[in-house]
Amino acid sequence: MRFTVLGPVRAWRDGAELALGPPKQRALLALLLVRLGAPVSLSDMVDVLWPQGPPRSAPNVVRHHVGSLRRLLGPDGGARAAGPVVRGSGGYRLDVHADDVDLLAFRQLAERARQAARDGSPRTATDLYAEALELWRGPVAHGIPPDVRAHPAFGAVDEECLDAVRGAAVEALAAGVPERALAPLRQATAAHPLDEPLQAHLVLALAGAGRRAEALAAYHTVRVRLAEELGVAPGRELVAAHQRVLEGHTAAVRPPAVSSGPESDDAPLGRLRPRAGPLVRPAQLPGDLPVFAGRGTELAYVDALLPKPRAADSTPPATVVITIEGMAGVGKTSLAVHWAHRVAHRFPDGQLYADLRGFDPLSVAVDPQDTLRAFLFALGVHPQDMPVGADAQSSLYRSLLSGRRVLVLLDNARDSAQVRPLLPGAPGCLVLVTSRTRLQGLVAAVGAHSFTLRPLHDAGAREVLTRRLGARRMAAEAAAVEAVIALCGRLPLALAILAARAAEPGIPLSSIAAELRAGHGSLDALSGDEADARAVFSWSYRALSPEAARLFRLLALHPGPDVSQHAAASLAGLGLREARTTLASLARSHLLTEPVPGRYTCHDLLRAYAGERLRTEETEAGRHGALGRLLDHALGTVRAAVDLLLPHRSARETPPPPRLGTAVEPLSGREAAATWLSTEIPGLIALVESAAQGGFPVHAWQLALAVELPLDRRGRREEQIAVQRTALAAAEQHGDPLGLPHIHRTLGFALHRVGANEEALAHLDRALDLFTSLDHPDGQARTLRSLAFLANSRARHQDALDHYGRALALHRAADNPRGRATVLNEIGWTHILRGEHHEALTQCATAVALHQETGDANGEAAAWDSLGYAHHHLEQYTHALSCYRHALAVYREVGDRTLEAETLSHIGDTQHALGNRPSALASWGRAAAILSELGHPDSWQLLDKLHGTAADPP
Length: 954
Known about the structure:
Layout: E1 2-4, E2 10-13, E3 16-17, H1 23-34, H2 42-49, H3 58-73, E4 85-88, E5 91-94, H4 102-118, H5 122-133, H6 146-149, H7 152-174, H8 182-191, H9 196-208, H10 212-230, H11 236-247, H12 296-305, E6 320-325, H13 332-343, E7 351-355, H14 368-378, H15 390-401, E8 407-413, H16 416-419, E9 430-435, H17 440-446, E10 449-452, H18 458-469, H19 471-476, H20 478-487, H21 492-502, H22 509-518, H23 533-542, H24 546-554, E11 563-564, H25 565-572, H26 576-588, E12 593-596, E13 599-601, H27 604-617, H28 620-645, H29 670-693, H30 697-706, H31 708-713, H32 717-734, H33 739-753, H34 757-773, H35 777-793, H36 797-813, H37 817-833, H38 837-854, H39 857-873, H40 877-894, H41 897-913, H42 917-934, H43 939-951
Parallel strand pairs: 6-9, 6-10, 7-8, 8-9
Antiparallel strand pairs: 1-2, 2-3, 4-5, 11-13, 12-13
Helix pairs in contact: 1-3, 2-3, 4-5, 4-7, 5-7, 7-8, 7-9, 7-12, 8-9, 8-43, 9-10, 9-11, 10-11, 14-15, 18-20, 18-21, 20-22, 24-26, 24-27, 25-26, 25-28, 28-29, 28-30, 29-30, 29-32, 30-32, 30-33, 32-33, 33-34, 33-35, 34-35, 35-36, 36-37, 37-38, 37-39, 38-39, 39-40, 39-41, 40-41, 41-42, ...
């Protein structure tokens, strides 16, 4: 057997590559490979494979995948022998020889290279690093689902590869052969364009290889990018590299170490150093929690993100940024503070701490400039030496941290923008950030390691209770302990409250467990004296006006993470002005928070309290009416948003008449529609389930129909399938003659997207039969197009043309020129797939003209893109680029970012065919950035193309 994980996950037996199965099975093999030799527990596997939260069936799914891997990797792929997948205490592990896995071979070579560097043999070290990096073929575990690959277990291996690139750059320059490091440096800097130490190494290597102009251009590119994307100037290491290039001091010299001592006035950034005496060593960490427990696995994960300690005279590691994210009450701050104390000795120049109060209901979030000034004071800057203005203060902050090893803990961050001004600019520091939101901006901009903290596992929850109650008490009431853990959802906040209650004399755990069991889903378990959550909430609730109290309890019907003013107004049947006033009243009472203007949210425990009040104080008719108004609001607004963003694309049916008191969101244009959809998609998905369960089947299938295209554009395949299945069940239960064919069609198309073609075909055939019986020409034509799409994916192009021919006839009979134009473009695309590019030009050009006549901008852009694709394959590259640029301009005008990325990718392909590799890389890079920002699963394909082309010799 042979395996690779430094790049795509692959496996071979006797020279023949194995098919590794579905994405989660491939991801499971990747996890076993990066944790090679160590057991991986079932709970760890579940956490990694479902980063957004596992379904109940997750353990069984994992066991199924493990069994499949054991059969696949066993001798001759047999079912009897387990092969290298071994089960033991602690979980499963992969037991293979070092020569059989690229990661193990890489680690051995990299360690030998480091030893050669320590022995003063830079040429040998360079050779060994080069041999190791030949095994690096892209991001680790490339090709598994992006959200799974974001797990720290994979990020730690990526960092090992980057560490080897840095080492190779240092040794190659010292050995006088900097060109040996250029290929891996280009690959690494393309993937991490804002990593200043890597960029500094590239600048020096280019200059040392005699490419001085290219080195200066590389410095200029990263300087501009830092200014545009982060609003910062280059740090000390990058500035020093640039200066060495200007002075011509780059050959056969190690990069200059960054001094931590005083600077002269003529040194780079020297004038930013304060006039005061020696810099102080801050020690601002809060005290560690004495009873901290239950997070052993999480601590190990975060430990793995830190580079191994190096010799005192070695190049300092790049600054590591780690974000610990998760829901309120999950213990983010406790974990961050505990781990910070645990690793503080590795940062001898001090620790900085700030509570950014990003979600504090009692105060506004802290301005990062205020935090910056506080940090400068802590670092010894005298008030009279404090620069004026945020830019000057930020520059001084980065200058003071340059060459120092400081731990910076930023607690409770609101967003990435609040954090960016507080990031050091030079290597050697650690930045630890906690937040209730995902800080994707830090991941994209500075390569932050994102770590999502979830409720404790059962073992961790038991450890927490043991630390608070003692082992004897736990053993004496073992059954009650298990019940308490299960019923409180393993949330650290809830466990702490329950432990405090159990510590009172005369209160056995069994009575708390019984109370939990009797009131599951309520706050009964969290009541009692100072830890009485219900008492605290009710004290604020009783002070509300009747209108505010009613809106608060009705908000429990909204399934999304937050609620807009218009949705809240619809729930309560209020006018918008009255709703705003009532929401403001709730916010002042700290029962709601307003994370962004006009949107409101509350803590999960508050939501549970609102649900209690809803069930006890609101009539069934009142609840039904409120949910109906909320669904009317959602359906009306999502249809308006889709009409603005994707006019003429979505299937339409007449919605139920809205109830009195419904407030539809006013969307002023495409940008407002896109913002609303991006914000509301989670809530819309959940509302389909609410509609199905709450007695609104027509709303369920019409909402599912409305979100079909937004979910498809974002590549959210699994959510799309789940939504359509829910809607189909509602339509079947209600016997809805119009909803059934629509949802059979949307579900069939979604299933095809994930390769479930047989089930997809069954749904599409059923949809066509139902639409035909209803004499519904638009539904028939849309279904025939989906059938053609499916046929093309299976290389049955004549079948596809037959389907398109029927759809075209239906549109002609209905006098639907937009439909005809769309089908003509898709017919042209089918001819492209058949290699009939001249025929494709004819069909697609007709489609462009028809779309222009009807004013269908989206359709026109799609047809221009198809024309470009046909010209490209006829090697008419100039014509292709012209067509693509027409498409790109229209997609940008209408704001269709997914198809903008697709056209940019096509432009890059044509530029590459013309031999213009830099332009191709730039186009692919812009496309990949768009898809990554959207969280689209196809972004990895572009990144793969980028990495592969960047690594090719020019």
